[in-house]
Structures are given as structure tokens and as C-alpha cells.
Design brief:
With 198 residues, the chain is of the alpha+beta class. The protein has 7 helices and 9 strands.
Length: 198
């Protein structure tokens, strides 16, 4: 009898837990399986603040990878992001977040990221310039399908991509056209910000 009661008690506990989780808004807010925000990657921004990827939830995000001493594609990536932002309305800009993650955390320390953000007049309310550990960097690059390798001269050969994440961190559009204006990609960004849809 005691064993039977114990089983009933355990079953009741499981049912209660399931019912509680179904009603729990935290449980209902689980990320979609294809969200990159599910990854436990930690980033440090230009102010030294450490945050997890899931802190980006709730806003459409433009995300790209770069490094500070790059003199070829990276300035074009930054220019592409600034160009997109400049074409948006004030309300659209307020809803957008832009995240740049360095491929060279060894040299792009907090001071270097601060200097870069200041030189480009990035609004810290919308722009985040960040670094992470080499291990998490490899993980994030894989999630974003960015390939990179360090060359003997110290430069980094890497993919040049700007990606649009929806409010749940799913990649919904991307462009590799960073040497000019990609009108189709801009329309995807504007549509998401203008309608408030995902």
C-alpha cells in the first residue's frame, strides 16, 4: 500500500509540474528551435557589460562579425549597417538593435571597442560592439555561417555577411552585398520594423 501511495504521489507531482509549466509564462517563452538566442554564448560590450545572447530578444537585430584593424571588408560592413540605419524612420531605428562581434578578441579589447564605437558615433542604446571568448566566437561564427581564419600577416580572412534576426532570434534574411546597397535586404528590414511582425 505504501509503495502504491508513493507512486500515486509521484504521479501527482509530475502532473502538477506539467500543469504549472503550461501556465507559466516563462515556460511559454521558450525560444524556437532555430533561434540563435538559445545558445549560451556570453558577450562583453564596449562598456564592459557582460550579457547573454538571449538579452537581444524582443527586438529585430542586425548582426555581423568584423575586426577592428581590418582595412578591407570590415569598413564596408560598418558602412552598410550605418546606411541601413540612416534610411529608416525614427520609430524604426528605435526598434532596431545592431550588434557587431569582433573576430579578433585578442586585440579588440574593451578600450579598442570603445574607441571604434566613439569614432563612428554609434548610439549605445542601439549599437553594441562586442567580444567573446575564442571558443564562443567559433560557436557564434558557426551559427551565423561566418567562416574565418587568421593569415600569417595577422589579418583575418572572413565571410562578409549582415544578418537580420527576428524578435526571437531566428535568421530571417541575410546579405553579403556589403560593397553597395542591397535594396531587397533593406526592404526586409524595413518591413519587419514597420509592421512590427516577426
Amino acid at each position: 500500500m505504501k509503495r502504491h501511495l508513493a507512486r500515486l504521489s509521484a504521479l501527482a507531482a509530475v502532473i502538477f509540474a506539467l500543469e504549472s509549466s503550461a501556465a507559466d509564462p516563462v515556460a511559454d517563452s521558450a525560444f524556437p528551435p532555430d533561434s540563435i538566442l538559445r545558445s549560451p554564448i556570453a558577450l562583453e560590450d564596449q562598456s564592459g557589460h557582460t550579457f547573454a545572447l538571449d538579452a537581444l530578444r524582443g527586438h529585430p537585430v542586425l548582426i555581423a562579425m568584423f575586426y577592428g584593424t581590418c582595412r578591407t571588408m570590415c569598413p564596408q560592413i560598418l558602412g552598410t549597417l550605418a546606411n541601413i540605419e540612416s534610411r529608416l524612420g525614427q520609430g524604426e531605428r528605435a526598434r532596431l538593435r545592431i550588434v557587431l562581434v569582433t573576430l579578433d578578441p585578442e586585440h579588440d579589447d574593451r578600450a579598442a571597442l570603445q574607441a571604434l564605437a566613439a569614432s563612428h558615433h554609434f548610439d549605445p542604446a542601439r549599437w553594441t560592439v562586442a567580444r567573446t571568448t575564442p571558443e564562443d566566437l567559433r560557436h557564434l561564427a558557426a551559427l551565423l555561417d561566418v567562416r574565418y581564419r587568421r593569415l600569417p600577416n595577422g589579418e583575418i580572412n572572413h565571410s562578409s555577411k549582415v544578418q537580420l534576426l527576428d524578435r526571437d532570434g531566428r535568421i530571417v534574411a541575410r546579405t553579403e552585398r556589403v560593397s553597395g546597397f542591397d535594396a531587397e535586404f533593406f526592404e526586409r528590414v524595413s518591413a519587419m520594423l514597420g509592421t512590427g511582425t516577426r
